[in-house]
Protein backbone atom coordinates (compact mmCIF):
# COMPACT_ATOMS: atom_id res chain seq x y z
CA UNK A 1 0.00 0.00 0.00
CA UNK A 2 1.39 3.40 -0.98
CA UNK A 3 1.49 5.92 1.84
CA UNK A 4 1.44 9.48 0.51
CA UNK A 5 1.29 10.97 4.00
CA UNK A 6 5.10 10.90 4.20
CA UNK A 7 7.72 12.52 1.98
CA UNK A 8 9.64 10.58 -0.64
CA UNK A 9 12.15 11.26 -3.41
CA UNK A 10 11.32 14.41 -5.39
CA UNK A 11 10.69 13.52 -9.04
CA UNK A 12 8.09 15.72 -10.73
CA UNK A 13 6.01 15.45 -13.85
CA UNK A 14 3.04 17.26 -15.30
CA UNK A 15 0.15 15.61 -17.10
CA UNK A 16 -0.70 16.73 -20.62
CA UNK A 17 -3.14 15.54 -23.26
CA UNK A 18 -1.21 14.92 -26.51
CA UNK A 19 -4.16 13.71 -28.52
CA UNK A 20 -7.56 12.31 -27.69
CA UNK A 21 -7.16 9.25 -25.50
CA UNK A 22 -3.39 9.66 -25.03
CA UNK A 23 -1.54 10.97 -21.99
CA UNK A 24 2.15 11.75 -21.69
CA UNK A 25 4.34 12.99 -18.87
CA UNK A 26 7.53 14.98 -18.84
CA UNK A 27 9.91 16.07 -16.13
CA UNK A 28 9.56 19.60 -14.85
CA UNK A 29 11.14 21.81 -12.25
CA UNK A 30 10.14 21.40 -8.63
CA UNK A 31 7.72 23.83 -7.09
CA UNK A 32 8.43 24.98 -3.55
CA UNK A 33 5.72 24.08 -1.05
CA UNK A 34 4.04 27.41 -0.34
CA UNK A 35 0.47 28.63 0.15
CA UNK A 36 -1.05 30.48 -2.78
CA UNK A 37 -3.83 33.02 -2.89
CA UNK A 38 -4.98 31.36 -6.13
CA UNK A 39 -5.01 27.84 -4.70
CA UNK A 40 -8.81 27.52 -4.51
CA UNK A 41 -10.52 28.91 -7.62
CA UNK A 42 -13.98 27.33 -7.48
CA UNK A 43 -15.65 30.64 -8.35
CA UNK A 44 -13.94 30.62 -11.77
CA UNK A 45 -15.99 27.64 -12.94
CA UNK A 46 -19.11 29.65 -13.75
CA UNK A 47 -17.17 32.09 -15.96
CA UNK A 48 -15.51 29.47 -18.12
CA UNK A 49 -17.06 28.46 -21.47
CA UNK A 50 -18.30 24.90 -21.85
CA UNK A 51 -18.14 23.29 -25.23
CA UNK A 52 -17.06 19.69 -24.63
CA UNK A 53 -20.17 18.10 -23.14
CA UNK A 54 -22.34 15.48 -24.81
CA UNK A 55 -25.81 14.98 -23.24
CA UNK A 56 -26.17 11.66 -25.01
CA UNK A 57 -23.08 10.31 -23.25
CA UNK A 58 -24.52 11.37 -19.89
CA UNK A 59 -27.82 9.59 -20.54
CA UNK A 60 -25.97 6.44 -21.56
CA UNK A 61 -23.83 6.63 -18.42
CA UNK A 62 -26.91 6.95 -16.21
CA UNK A 63 -28.56 3.94 -17.87
CA UNK A 64 -25.40 1.89 -17.34
CA UNK A 65 -25.25 2.89 -13.68
CA UNK A 66 -28.90 2.08 -13.06
CA UNK A 67 -28.40 -1.31 -14.66
CA UNK A 68 -25.41 -2.04 -12.43
CA UNK A 69 -27.33 -0.97 -9.32
CA UNK A 70 -29.88 -3.68 -10.09
CA UNK A 71 -27.65 -6.44 -11.42
CA UNK A 72 -24.20 -5.87 -9.87
CA UNK A 73 -24.18 -3.28 -7.03
CA UNK A 74 -20.53 -3.96 -6.19
CA UNK A 75 -19.51 -2.76 -9.66
CA UNK A 76 -21.30 0.60 -9.42
CA UNK A 77 -18.58 2.69 -7.80
CA UNK A 78 -15.71 1.62 -10.10
CA UNK A 79 -17.98 2.36 -13.08
CA UNK A 80 -18.91 5.81 -11.71
CA UNK A 81 -15.29 6.81 -11.27
CA UNK A 82 -14.50 5.66 -14.81
CA UNK A 83 -17.48 7.64 -16.13
CA UNK A 84 -16.31 10.72 -14.24
CA UNK A 85 -13.03 10.42 -16.13
CA UNK A 86 -14.77 10.08 -19.50
CA UNK A 87 -17.53 12.67 -19.08
CA UNK A 88 -15.17 15.41 -17.85
CA UNK A 89 -12.33 14.35 -20.18
CA UNK A 90 -10.02 14.35 -17.18
CA UNK A 91 -6.58 12.77 -17.02
CA UNK A 92 -7.28 10.99 -13.72
CA UNK A 93 -10.20 10.27 -11.40
CA UNK A 94 -10.77 8.53 -8.11
CA UNK A 95 -12.43 8.33 -4.72
CA UNK A 96 -10.90 9.44 -1.43
CA UNK A 97 -12.70 7.64 1.43
CA UNK A 98 -12.11 8.83 4.98
CA UNK A 99 -10.63 6.31 7.42
CA UNK A 100 -10.89 7.88 10.86
CA UNK A 101 -9.81 4.67 12.59
CA UNK A 102 -6.23 5.75 11.89
CA UNK A 103 -4.41 8.21 14.12
CA UNK A 104 -4.27 10.75 12.60
CA UNK A 105 -7.16 10.10 10.20
CA UNK A 106 -6.34 9.47 6.53
CA UNK A 107 -8.03 9.14 3.18
CA UNK A 108 -7.79 5.92 1.16
CA UNK A 109 -7.66 6.31 -2.60
CA UNK A 110 -10.01 3.86 -4.30
CA UNK A 111 -11.02 2.94 -7.87
CA UNK A 112 -8.41 5.22 -9.45
CA UNK A 113 -8.48 5.69 -13.22
CA UNK A 114 -6.13 7.34 -15.69
CA UNK A 115 -2.68 8.74 -14.98
CA UNK A 116 -2.87 8.18 -11.21
CA UNK A 117 -4.09 4.57 -11.32
CA UNK A 118 -0.73 3.38 -9.95
CA UNK A 119 -1.62 5.01 -6.61
CA UNK A 120 -4.62 2.70 -6.03
CA UNK A 121 -4.99 2.07 -2.28
CA UNK A 122 -2.69 4.95 -1.31
CA UNK A 123 -3.13 6.79 1.98
CA UNK A 124 -3.26 10.59 2.06
CA UNK A 125 -3.60 12.95 5.05
CA UNK A 126 -7.06 13.99 6.25
CA UNK A 127 -5.78 17.41 7.28
CA UNK A 128 -3.54 19.51 5.09
CA UNK A 129 -5.04 18.17 1.86
CA UNK A 130 -7.52 19.26 -0.84
CA UNK A 131 -9.87 16.41 0.15
CA UNK A 132 -9.75 17.50 3.79
CA UNK A 133 -10.46 21.09 2.76
CA UNK A 134 -13.46 19.90 0.74
CA UNK A 135 -14.87 18.09 3.79
CA UNK A 136 -14.19 21.07 6.05
CA UNK A 137 -16.02 23.42 3.71
CA UNK A 138 -18.69 20.79 2.95
CA UNK A 139 -18.78 22.09 -0.62
CA UNK A 140 -17.24 21.38 -4.03
CA UNK A 141 -13.75 22.72 -4.55
CA UNK A 142 -11.57 23.52 -7.56
CA UNK A 143 -7.91 23.56 -6.64
CA UNK A 144 -5.10 24.81 -8.92
CA UNK A 145 -1.63 23.28 -8.61
CA UNK A 146 -2.19 21.82 -5.13
CA UNK A 147 1.42 20.58 -5.10
CA UNK A 148 2.50 24.20 -4.63
CA UNK A 149 0.69 24.34 -1.29
CA UNK A 150 0.83 20.70 -0.19
CA UNK A 151 4.39 19.52 -0.15
CA UNK A 152 3.42 15.83 0.21
CA UNK A 153 1.88 15.98 -3.27
CA UNK A 154 4.96 17.49 -4.88
CA UNK A 155 7.17 15.01 -3.06
CA UNK A 156 5.44 12.06 -4.74
CA UNK A 157 5.91 12.71 -8.44
CA UNK A 158 2.75 14.76 -8.83
CA UNK A 159 2.19 18.08 -10.58
CA UNK A 160 -1.54 18.71 -10.93
CA UNK A 161 -2.81 21.59 -13.09
CA UNK A 162 -6.28 21.43 -11.50
CA UNK A 163 -8.29 19.03 -9.39
CA UNK A 164 -12.06 19.29 -9.01
CA UNK A 165 -13.47 17.66 -5.86
CA UNK A 166 -17.02 17.16 -4.58
CA UNK A 167 -17.96 15.77 -1.15
CA UNK A 168 -19.69 12.39 -0.77
CA UNK A 169 -22.31 12.11 1.95
CA UNK A 170 -25.01 9.58 2.81
CA UNK A 171 -28.26 11.25 3.82
CA UNK A 172 -27.72 13.78 6.58
CA UNK A 173 -24.46 12.24 7.73
CA UNK A 174 -21.25 14.30 7.48
CA UNK A 175 -19.32 13.85 4.26
CA UNK A 176 -17.04 10.81 4.46
CA UNK A 177 -15.03 11.24 1.28
CA UNK A 178 -14.66 12.96 -2.08
CA UNK A 179 -15.04 12.15 -5.76
CA UNK A 180 -12.35 13.95 -7.74
CA UNK A 181 -11.02 14.44 -11.26
CA UNK A 182 -7.62 15.81 -12.31
CA UNK A 183 -7.35 18.14 -15.31
CA UNK A 184 -4.85 17.74 -18.12
CA UNK A 185 -4.23 21.49 -18.23
CA UNK A 186 -5.25 24.68 -16.46
CA UNK A 187 -8.71 26.16 -17.07
CA UNK A 188 -10.05 22.81 -18.29
CA UNK A 189 -13.03 22.32 -15.97
CA UNK A 190 -16.21 24.40 -16.00
CA UNK A 191 -19.59 24.53 -14.28
CA UNK A 192 -20.92 21.64 -16.40
CA UNK A 193 -18.09 19.44 -15.12
CA UNK A 194 -19.07 20.44 -11.59
CA UNK A 195 -22.71 19.51 -12.29
CA UNK A 196 -21.72 16.13 -13.72
CA UNK A 197 -19.38 15.37 -10.84
CA UNK A 198 -21.96 16.44 -8.24
CA UNK A 199 -24.61 14.16 -9.77
CA UNK A 200 -22.14 11.27 -9.89
CA UNK A 201 -21.17 11.91 -6.26
CA UNK A 202 -24.83 11.64 -5.29
CA UNK A 203 -24.98 8.28 -7.06
CA UNK A 204 -21.74 7.22 -5.34
CA UNK A 205 -23.42 7.97 -2.01
CA UNK A 206 -26.41 5.82 -3.00
CA UNK A 207 -24.08 3.00 -4.07
CA UNK A 208 -22.14 3.15 -0.80
CA UNK A 209 -25.40 3.11 1.14
CA UNK A 210 -26.45 0.02 -0.81
CA UNK A 211 -23.11 -1.63 -0.02
CA UNK A 212 -23.45 -0.81 3.67
CA UNK A 213 -27.01 -2.14 3.78
CA UNK A 214 -25.94 -5.31 1.99
CA UNK A 215 -23.06 -5.81 4.43
CA UNK A 216 -25.33 -5.25 7.45
CA UNK A 217 -27.87 -7.70 6.04
CA UNK A 218 -25.17 -10.33 5.45
CA UNK A 219 -23.83 -9.85 8.98
CA UNK A 220 -27.34 -10.09 10.45
CA UNK A 221 -28.09 -13.28 8.50
CA UNK A 222 -24.76 -14.83 9.50
CA UNK A 223 -25.36 -13.94 13.15
CA UNK A 224 -28.90 -15.33 13.00
CA UNK A 225 -27.62 -18.58 11.48
CA UNK A 226 -24.90 -18.83 14.13
CA UNK A 227 -27.39 -18.28 16.95
CA UNK A 228 -29.73 -20.89 15.44
CA UNK A 229 -26.87 -23.42 15.25
CA UNK A 230 -25.88 -22.71 18.84
CA UNK A 231 -29.44 -22.97 20.13
CA UNK A 232 -29.81 -26.29 18.31
CA UNK A 233 -26.58 -27.47 19.90
CA UNK A 234 -27.73 -26.34 23.36
CA UNK A 235 -31.08 -28.11 23.03
CA UNK A 236 -29.38 -31.35 21.97
CA UNK A 237 -27.00 -31.10 24.93
CA UNK A 238 -29.90 -30.49 27.32
CA UNK A 239 -31.78 -33.53 26.02
CA UNK A 240 -28.67 -35.71 26.29
CA UNK A 241 -27.95 -34.49 29.81
CA UNK A 242 -31.57 -34.93 30.87
CA UNK A 243 -31.62 -38.48 29.55
CA UNK A 244 -28.41 -39.31 31.42
CA UNK A 245 -29.78 -37.85 34.66
CA UNK A 246 -33.03 -39.80 34.37
CA UNK A 247 -31.19 -43.07 33.77
CA UNK A 248 -28.67 -42.56 36.58
CA UNK A 249 -31.28 -41.23 39.04
CA UNK A 250 -33.54 -44.21 38.36
CA UNK A 251 -30.71 -46.65 39.14
CA UNK A 252 -29.94 -45.04 42.51
CA UNK A 253 -33.39 -43.96 43.75
CA UNK A 254 -34.91 -46.10 46.53
CA UNK A 255 -38.50 -45.06 45.77
CA UNK A 256 -40.54 -43.26 43.12
CA UNK A 257 -40.91 -40.30 45.49
CA UNK A 258 -37.14 -39.98 45.89
CA UNK A 259 -36.67 -40.25 42.13
CA UNK A 260 -39.23 -37.51 41.51
CA UNK A 261 -37.73 -35.26 44.19
CA UNK A 262 -34.09 -35.54 43.11
CA UNK A 263 -34.86 -35.42 39.41
CA UNK A 264 -37.11 -32.37 39.84
CA UNK A 265 -34.34 -30.49 41.64
CA UNK A 266 -31.81 -31.26 38.93
CA UNK A 267 -34.18 -30.32 36.13
CA UNK A 268 -34.93 -27.04 37.89
CA UNK A 269 -31.19 -26.36 38.06
CA UNK A 270 -30.99 -26.96 34.31
CA UNK A 271 -33.92 -24.61 33.71
CA UNK A 272 -32.32 -21.84 35.78
CA UNK A 273 -29.03 -22.30 33.95
CA UNK A 274 -30.78 -22.17 30.58
CA UNK A 275 -32.59 -18.93 31.48
CA UNK A 276 -29.70 -17.21 33.23
CA UNK A 277 -27.89 -15.74 30.16
CA UNK A 278 -31.10 -14.12 28.93
CA UNK A 279 -31.96 -12.82 32.41
CA UNK A 280 -28.57 -11.12 32.73
CA UNK A 281 -28.44 -9.78 29.15
CA UNK A 282 -29.03 -6.18 30.19
CA UNK A 283 -26.14 -6.11 32.66
CA UNK A 284 -23.63 -8.53 31.14
CA UNK A 285 -21.48 -8.44 28.03
CA UNK A 286 -22.30 -10.35 24.90
CA UNK A 287 -20.24 -12.76 22.90
CA UNK A 288 -19.12 -11.64 19.42
CA UNK A 289 -21.77 -13.95 17.92
CA UNK A 290 -24.51 -12.09 19.82
CA UNK A 291 -25.23 -14.75 22.48
CA UNK A 292 -25.59 -13.44 26.04
CA UNK A 293 -23.33 -14.68 28.81
CA UNK A 294 -24.01 -15.28 32.49
CA UNK A 295 -21.55 -14.36 35.24
CA UNK A 296 -20.07 -16.89 37.68
CA UNK A 297 -21.00 -15.03 40.88
CA UNK A 298 -24.63 -14.76 39.76
CA UNK A 299 -24.75 -18.45 38.91
CA UNK A 300 -23.36 -19.57 42.29
CA UNK A 301 -25.65 -17.27 44.25
CA UNK A 302 -28.69 -18.46 42.27
CA UNK A 303 -27.80 -22.09 43.00
CA UNK A 304 -27.42 -21.43 46.73
CA UNK A 305 -30.55 -19.31 47.03
CA UNK A 306 -32.64 -21.93 45.22
CA UNK A 307 -31.72 -24.62 47.76
CA UNK A 308 -31.38 -22.72 51.03
CA UNK A 309 -33.39 -20.20 53.02
CA UNK A 310 -30.63 -18.67 55.07
CA UNK A 311 -31.55 -15.87 57.46
CA UNK A 312 -27.88 -15.04 58.00
CA UNK A 313 -26.39 -13.93 54.67
CA UNK A 314 -22.92 -14.31 56.19
CA UNK A 315 -23.30 -18.09 56.10
CA UNK A 316 -22.51 -18.10 52.38
CA UNK A 317 -19.80 -15.99 50.72
CA UNK A 318 -18.47 -15.80 47.17
CA UNK A 319 -15.26 -14.08 46.13
CA UNK A 320 -13.46 -13.85 42.80
CA UNK A 321 -13.04 -11.75 39.70
CA UNK A 322 -15.76 -11.39 37.08
CA UNK A 323 -15.94 -14.54 34.95
CA UNK A 324 -18.34 -14.58 31.99
CA UNK A 325 -19.78 -17.94 30.99
CA UNK A 326 -21.11 -19.28 27.72
CA UNK A 327 -24.37 -21.28 27.60
CA UNK A 328 -22.70 -24.70 27.76
CA UNK A 329 -20.41 -23.89 30.70
CA UNK A 330 -23.35 -22.20 32.47
CA UNK A 331 -25.35 -25.45 32.27
CA UNK A 332 -22.43 -27.59 33.48
CA UNK A 333 -21.51 -25.34 36.40
CA UNK A 334 -25.16 -24.87 37.41
CA UNK A 335 -25.50 -28.65 37.82
CA UNK A 336 -22.19 -28.77 39.70
CA UNK A 337 -23.23 -26.15 42.26
CA UNK A 338 -26.72 -27.64 42.50
CA UNK A 339 -25.17 -30.95 43.60
CA UNK A 340 -22.73 -29.28 46.01
CA UNK A 341 -25.50 -27.21 47.60
CA UNK A 342 -27.93 -30.15 47.82
CA UNK A 343 -25.33 -32.38 49.48
CA UNK A 344 -24.33 -29.60 51.88
CA UNK A 345 -27.96 -29.10 52.93
CA UNK A 346 -28.50 -32.86 53.39
CA UNK A 347 -25.19 -33.90 54.94
CA UNK A 348 -22.91 -30.90 55.44
CA UNK A 349 -22.51 -27.34 56.67
CA UNK A 350 -25.71 -25.87 55.23
CA UNK A 351 -27.74 -28.46 57.13
CA UNK A 352 -26.35 -27.21 60.45
CA UNK A 353 -27.40 -24.09 62.30
CA UNK A 354 -23.92 -22.54 62.35
CA UNK A 355 -22.52 -24.05 59.17
CA UNK A 356 -20.91 -21.84 56.56
CA UNK A 357 -19.83 -22.16 52.93
CA UNK A 358 -17.14 -20.06 51.27
CA UNK A 359 -16.60 -20.17 47.51
CA UNK A 360 -13.51 -18.53 46.02
CA UNK A 361 -12.05 -18.73 42.53
CA UNK A 362 -8.84 -17.55 40.98
CA UNK A 363 -7.38 -17.77 37.45
CA UNK A 364 -4.15 -19.76 37.41
CA UNK A 365 -2.30 -19.85 34.08
CA UNK A 366 -4.77 -21.36 31.60
CA UNK A 367 -7.10 -22.72 34.28
CA UNK A 368 -9.78 -21.36 36.57
CA UNK A 369 -9.52 -22.88 40.05
CA UNK A 370 -12.75 -22.85 42.10
CA UNK A 371 -12.65 -23.81 45.78
CA UNK A 372 -15.79 -24.77 47.74
CA UNK A 373 -15.06 -24.85 51.47
CA UNK A 374 -17.53 -25.90 54.20
CA UNK A 375 -17.08 -25.23 57.92
CA UNK A 376 -19.26 -25.49 61.01
CA UNK A 377 -21.10 -28.62 59.93
CA UNK A 378 -20.91 -32.19 61.21
CA UNK A 379 -17.38 -33.34 61.96
CA UNK A 380 -16.02 -35.60 59.22
CA UNK A 381 -14.04 -38.75 59.91
CA UNK A 382 -13.09 -39.37 56.28
CA UNK A 383 -14.58 -40.07 52.85
CA UNK A 384 -17.89 -41.95 52.61
CA UNK A 385 -17.88 -45.71 52.14
CA UNK A 386 -19.16 -45.43 48.57
CA UNK A 387 -19.24 -42.78 45.87
CA UNK A 388 -22.68 -41.26 45.42
CA UNK A 389 -24.52 -40.42 42.22
CA UNK A 390 -24.05 -36.67 42.80
CA UNK A 391 -20.27 -37.04 42.71
CA UNK A 392 -20.41 -39.09 39.52
CA UNK A 393 -22.73 -36.52 37.92
CA UNK A 394 -20.37 -33.67 38.81
CA UNK A 395 -17.40 -35.54 37.38
CA UNK A 396 -19.35 -36.31 34.22
CA UNK A 397 -20.38 -32.72 33.50
CA UNK A 398 -16.84 -31.49 34.18
CA UNK A 399 -15.20 -34.07 31.94
CA UNK A 400 -17.35 -32.97 29.00
CA UNK A 401 -16.98 -29.64 27.21
CA UNK A 402 -15.18 -27.96 30.14
CA UNK A 403 -12.34 -30.53 30.16
CA UNK A 404 -12.21 -30.05 33.93
CA UNK A 405 -11.61 -32.16 36.99
CA UNK A 406 -12.88 -32.30 40.57
CA UNK A 407 -11.05 -33.17 43.79
CA UNK A 408 -12.69 -33.68 47.19
CA UNK A 409 -10.98 -33.45 50.56
CA UNK A 410 -12.94 -34.67 53.64
CA UNK A 411 -11.32 -32.48 56.27
CA UNK A 412 -12.47 -32.79 59.86
CA UNK A 413 -14.01 -29.29 59.90
CA UNK A 414 -15.87 -29.82 56.64
CA UNK A 415 -15.75 -30.78 52.99
CA UNK A 416 -13.45 -28.93 50.58
CA UNK A 417 -13.98 -29.33 46.85
CA UNK A 418 -11.50 -28.03 44.27
CA UNK A 419 -12.66 -27.65 40.67
CA UNK A 420 -10.27 -26.93 37.80
CA UNK A 421 -11.52 -25.99 34.34
CA UNK A 422 -9.78 -24.65 31.24
CA UNK A 423 -10.41 -20.91 30.99
CA UNK A 424 -10.90 -20.91 27.22
CA UNK A 425 -13.71 -23.45 27.66
CA UNK A 426 -15.75 -21.17 29.90
CA UNK A 427 -16.89 -18.97 27.01
CA UNK A 428 -18.35 -21.96 25.12
From TrEMBL:
It is an enzyme of class 2 (transferase). Pfam families: GAF_2, HWE_HK. The keyword Transferase applies. It catalyses: ATP + protein L-histidine = ADP + protein N-phospho-L-histidine. Signal peptide: none annotated. It comes from the Bacteria. Keywords: ATP-binding, Kinase, Nucleotide-binding, Phosphoprotein, Plasmid, Transferase. GO terms for molecular function: ATP binding; protein histidine kinase activity. The keyword DNA-binding does not apply. Its EC number is 2.7.13.3. InterPro entries: GAF (IPR003018), GAF-like_dom_sf (IPR029016), HATPase_C_sf (IPR036890), Sig_transdc_His_kinase_HWE (IPR011102). Residues 230-322 form the Signal transduction histidine kinase HWE region domain. This is histidine kinase.
Amino acid sequence: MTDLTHRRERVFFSIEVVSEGEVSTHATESFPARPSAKLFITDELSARPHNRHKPGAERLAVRQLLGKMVDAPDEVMPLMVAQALDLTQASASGLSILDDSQDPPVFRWQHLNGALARFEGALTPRDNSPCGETLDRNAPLLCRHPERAYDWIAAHDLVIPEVLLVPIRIGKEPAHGTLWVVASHEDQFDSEDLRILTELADLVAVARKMQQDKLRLQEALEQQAMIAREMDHRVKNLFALTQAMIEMSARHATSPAELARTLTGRLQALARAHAMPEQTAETQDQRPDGMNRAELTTLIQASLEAHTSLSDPGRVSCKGETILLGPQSTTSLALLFHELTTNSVKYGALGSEHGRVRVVWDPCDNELVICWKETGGPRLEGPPARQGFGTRLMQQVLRGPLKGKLDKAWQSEGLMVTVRVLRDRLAN
